[in-house]
TrEMBL record:
GO terms for molecular function: gluconate transmembrane transporter activity. Coiled coil: none annotated. It comes from Companilactobacillus crustorum. This is Gluconate H(+) symporter. Keywords: Cell membrane, Membrane, Transmembrane, Transmembrane helix, Transport.
Length: 112
């Protein structure tokens, strides 16, 4: 039974990534939850199991970094980084272009 759940989990992961074009990190989390439920792990212990599986001590941080990277990508794709850069360049002018770029990089780096 456990082997069947594992095979179905791999199929679900491939379906989410290839067919639905879902983010790989989100697909892994969804698949982990589905496999945990399929194996009969109590709902209260699934998150802990995922955290331990991701990497013990870095488990909490890797989830935060993963979702943060996705949020940063959304901002970049929406043109946020471009807008921040051009606004600062317009405010500082051509003479202080280097300062505008440094400040834009700092702001964008914090967001991503």
């Amino acid at each position: 039974m456990a082997f069947l759940v594992l095979i179905l989990g791999v199929a679900l992961l491939l379906f989410l990534i290839i067919e639905l074009k879902l983010n790989t990190f989100v697909s892994l989390i969804i698949t982990s939850i589905a496999v945990g439920i399929g194996l009969g792990i109590p709902m209260t212990k699934i998150a802990t199991s995922i955290q331990n599986g991701i990497g013990g001590q870095l488990g909490e941080l890797s989830i935060v970094f993963g979702f943060g990277a996705m949020l940063g990508r959304l901002v970049a794709d929406a043109g946020g980084a471009y807008r921040i850069s051009h606004t600062l360049i317009q405010k500082f002018g051509k003479k202080r272009l280097q300062l505008a770029i440094v400040l834009a990089s700092f702001i964008i780096g914090i967001a991503f």
